[in-house]
Amino acid sequence: MFDFLSLNVFHQDLNEAYTTGRLSCEDGSALRYIDYAIIEQQTPMTAASTFWLDSLRDCKIDHHLSLPFDRHRVSDEHRTGRGISASFSFSEHLSRTFIAYASMSKITLENMALASYYAFLFKLTNGEKDLCIGMNTRGRYKPELMPIIGMFVNVIPLRCKLDPCWSFARLVKEVHQMATDSSHYSYFPLQRILAQHPLVSKPAFLDTSFQFDSNTTQNMSNEIILDDVRLSLVPYSTKIGTDEI
What structural domains and CATH numbers belong to the chain? Predict the structure, then answer.
């Protein structure tokens, strides 16, 4: 089992093996996933543990956001994995304004979109000020982990304690700082984050998540066109065990 980013590594290794008859990593000096797993188990995680404990202090992580719904969900209902999606497009003017504001604020487009998402959730929940959602992270927080085939993805909670009196600029600043700090400790496994809250059986932040995908490549081999619909391969991986939900 491996994540989406491992596909490119696998394809490169497969191509190298077929064209040269050998792999450049066969000398045994390359870092392997099993090496990473052992190192991770031996790495002190006191700072990360303290960070996540403080981040979720007094947070009702089993409290579901009061979002509008089309039917009531039964708590013990079996999840089929089926669902629907809704999409909309920004106008060119709004897109340029969005990018310009992110550049002016010196933040990434991802954090800009995240701040907008919190503002949207604040409106949908009729003023919920403590918003905790989940986000899927790549988990490859060091350059030497990039060429390894394995499952590095991790889900982390992102908590924003929003003040209704904030301006949008203040919200963007606060979300950027929170996301940056959380990203720094994103390697801390979700299981261990949840273990800090043993009385919570079903963390609600896993029901509302944020995912930012930037598809700027022009690789037409990953696209299929059916009539006027263009389908493309979108990078997405997740790792949530049944004991974590």
Answer: 6-65+93-212+228-244 (3.30.559.30)
